[in-house]
Amino acid sequence: MKKWMAALIVLLLLLPAAALAEGRMHPAYDEASGKWGYIDHSGAWALPPRFDAADVFRGDYAAAMLSDGDEDEERYHWGVIDREGNWVVEPRYMVDGGYDGWYYGGLENGTYFIWDETLAEENGKMGFFDVRSGFFSGVIYDGEVDFRNGERLVPVYLNGRACYVDRTNGQVEITLPEETDFGWPMDDAEFSNGYALVFLENGEGKEKAYLLNEAGELISPPGVVFYDVDVGLHAAVTADGLSSAQDEATKLLGYYDLNRGTWRIPPVYETIMDFSQSGYACVELPGRVGSMIIDTQGNVLAEGLRGGYPFYGEYAHAMLDGNRLINARGETAAVIPEGFRPEVQWDDELRHEYDYYASEDGLLAVSGGEQGEGVMRLNGEWVLPPMEGQYLYAGEETFSREGWRFFSEGLQAISRHFENGTRIVKLRDGGTREETAYRRKIAYINKDGEFITDFLYDSGGAFLDGLAYVERDGRSGYINENG
Hints:
Elements: H1 2-23, E1 26-30, E2 35-39, E3 45-51, E4 53-54, E5 62-68, E6 75-81, E7 87-96, E8 98-99, E9 102-103, E10 111-115, H2 117-122, E11 125-130, E12 141-142, E13 153-158, E14 161-166, E15 172-175, E16 180-181, E17 195-201, E18 207-213, E19 218-219, E20 224-225, E21 227-228, E22 233-234, E23 242-247, E24 253-257, E25 262-269, E26 271-272, E27 280-284, E28 291-295, E29 300-305, E30 311-312, E31 315-318, E32 324-326, E33 332-335, E34 341-342, E35 344-347, E36 353-356, E37 363-367, E38 373-377, E39 382-384, E40 390-392, E41 411-426, E42 432-446, E43 459-460, E44 467-472, E45 475-480
């Protein structure tokens, strides 16, 4: 009986993985018909080719396009399909889901911007489609909408009023006073960790910044400033409600606890930095040489640093203090070779954060400008030594789970420049000169620096669900993790 139950449990655990493998669908081009469709993980057609363009599936939905007209006046009609190929948003719009593998709100939890070209020209109307719930708002909002970080409440202008709608059903949940606007760009108006930054006219032609909570309350404690462009202060709220802020009287900076309505870290600093997602920040006291590292309770973890260094994830780059990565205690985590710097990436999952190209198992991307890029371990060992013309490749088709990721699914695209004959260059004086021509080719390595492919491809995407999209000599296809 126990053996039978154990076997049943194992079978049940395996079912989701099997279902996932069967449900994988990847956009693919059919040369015979000149159309796009979707293949499954084995390469068989899951949706026959009938589209003129097709995007990667985001959850259960994907953007697809039909076109008409001749080559000179070809018109594009984008919509959204489900996994059966049915149109859930008819192909009559323009659809924007992001770029270079970066998706608004995340691949499976985000949104598409949608607008009608005719309406946009006349009225500036836009809308959105939520890939998590399958809700389409219709093209009803005034001008720009912004919901890049995947929060439930998104800022829009509706009938001339600034408001927030629930992106899963379009319900208006917060309508702001008529004299309120979101500022420009609208990034600050997006909710993050329960708060957004909005601007309100004070009656004297000037705007004051307020924090807005999800209950629709405008927050502006007496003497507390959340936004000051002169000192580079933009309120950044942590997960536990701690916001960078300024004392209006002294102009000094600290961190205000929005949940308790008081300063948690007093405003005694001349310069501060936003807390990283790991909870560390560099601060500097007035009239004092060197900076300190503090945590979100105000505890000093290290001091005497030669510069104020932003923390990205667990590390900061102490470029003036030995060109090294340091941890929150100021200890050396990695020594960066002379002439190189650690590469920083946008954190696609958290949206408002940065991180180093550092994988969980200690691989770090470094760049040396004309010396090229390489991959090293935190202990200084080269996994992929740098060389001129070599770069980590993040190209046009860099699909992955949250956008482009360093060593997505354990594999990384690398580009190198190779000589490709000569070319004639025209000079300003009317003369010409002959110079060496180069071409870029892409290969893939694993975390040990071993190449799983040669430099065969003209472009190459990040790995997603075991496959990477590649192009070679004008043709496209997918490779698996074995190349």
